[in-house]
Amino acid sequence: MGLNWKKYQEHILQTCMDSYHAPLSVDYWRDRFFAYTLSYILPLSFVTLIPGIIVSLQTDLIELIYLDLIIIAALAAIAHTPRIPMLWRKIIFSYLLYVLGIVLTGLLGLSGPGLMFLLAISVFMIIIFPQRWVYLSTFLNALICLCIALFLHLEWMDVETGPDTDQLAVQAWLAISVNLVVLSAIFALLIPRLFAGLQMSLTSQGQLTEALKKEKEKLQVSLKEVNRKNEELEQFAYVASHDLQEPLRMVSSFMKLLHDKYHMQLDEKAKKYIHFAIDGAGRMKQMITDLLAYSRAGKWEKKIETIDIESLLEEITQELSLKIAETQAVLENKGLHPLLGYKTPLKQVLVNLISNALHYQLSGNKAHVIVYQQEREDDWEFCVEDNGIGIDPSKQEEIFDVFKRLHHKEEYSGTGMGLAISKKMVELMGGRIWVTSELGKGSAFRFTLPKVE
Amino acid sequence: MRPIKILLVEDNEGDILLTQEALDEGKILNSLHVVRDGSEALKYLEKQAPYEAAERPDLILLDINMPKKNGHEVLEYIKKSEKLKKIPVIILTTSSAERDIKTAYNNYANCYIVKPVELENFMEMVTKIEDFWVSIVQLPEN
Questions:
Q1: Which of A242, A252, A253, A286 to mutate to test the interface with B (most CBs of B within 10 A)?
Q2: pTM score > 0.80 for this model?
Q3: pLDDT digits over A7-23, tens only?
Q4: Rounded Cα distance, A354 and A167, in Å
Q5: How much is the ipTM here?
Q6: Interface check B50 vs A, CB under 8 A
């Protein structure tokens, strides 16, 4: 039953609504309101019809029954006939109700529902018709009331008003019907205010939605642009570093060949020159290799897997065993726990951080490195802590930049790419990386990895 | 052990010289012929002018990035030719791109070598190639 009612209502809405008005306008809601009115008024009119028929039969007003039936049929017709402009449906609707109202008033006078009908129609008209017709119903009501008063005065008709004499009947009619006109006018005055407010919120909401949509589109465009630029940059770095290798290989190869083959003819100074050339080429080669590694840092197999951190650390320790033995380092770990994520970049980041912890030590100092893992609400936090030389607080941000080095190459070797690569990898995995450190007392590098479902 | 004829297809003069030097240091006196791009290589192999007197090589060292015809095109041509396809082709290039490696093997390259960056390694590689293809491998007669 409920379903059928919905279907019936939907049918009326589809038949009547024409798509002239945007959904975010008061006019659209006027139309919709009217269509709903039609859907409700048909079944409800039967409710008023039954007592009407009973009363009509008792008072010998058979015409009223016919009129009721005709009006109900006409209402059904305007609700169900397709391809009539909405405005005409409304005009016919109002016309029918006016006819009913006038007839009821004429036949039943003040004891019938006539005036009530006229008031109801005027409210409906204020709601369903465009703003510029707002006083139409007030005017019509006034006109009808005056006509009836005139007819009463001319004794062309006889309305049940109570007082017996005609003159008093006219006065009583005017006294009562003026209320109708005033009420119509009040509604005509007030209801548009409500609509104006409604339109204002609808408009601002529409503007907001529009602005939001535009903003979103803009964001999409810039996101695409950023992605494209990133890809371009990676491609550039890859190609550049690849092509840069080529001439560099020539420089270092022939410098070495010169050194090897003409060893005997060269004096110490010449050999020194050659040494600097080879050394420079070597460092540049390392930088290019690192740049290549950086440009490739985002290119791991995007496969989420369960990572056993404990065996991952064992693997790493194995790989770094030479350096560990060399520095007589002690490696500890705490709170290790398997997690879901990308193994390749996680391993690379841990390798980088642990190598740094082993590397940046005062010579002769026994390295002590602790790897912590901590579970938090949305992510895992890793910490690689060492007892090394530490980092000046003012430099703790920039050490993650590409080719950023804080020391002379004679002091501590390296191209300054490890942390930049680590940062890129952590951020691509959706985490962040930072350091807390005190100069001379060691550093603690922390990074987070979001939990993956 | 008879000396073999090697065709080097390479546009980088430095690498040509380095290969030459390395081969010169080798035990066997192999003959090395050099062409500097892909279309020259095809002319050489097909004995077209100015290579009418060219001898069929026993081994081809082929670079990928070259002007005119690149290494992949040359390789494809060789391996599609009934006459030439028996000649072992070694791709010798700076490219370590997965795409290049796949393409080369798909076109029946006999092996793919990325040029070592260090001089020592480069020299060693050339001698090893020579050693392998001359002393260890049995090559077909023409």
A1: A253
A2: no
A3: 888 888 888 777 667 67
A4: 110
A5: 0.77
A6: no
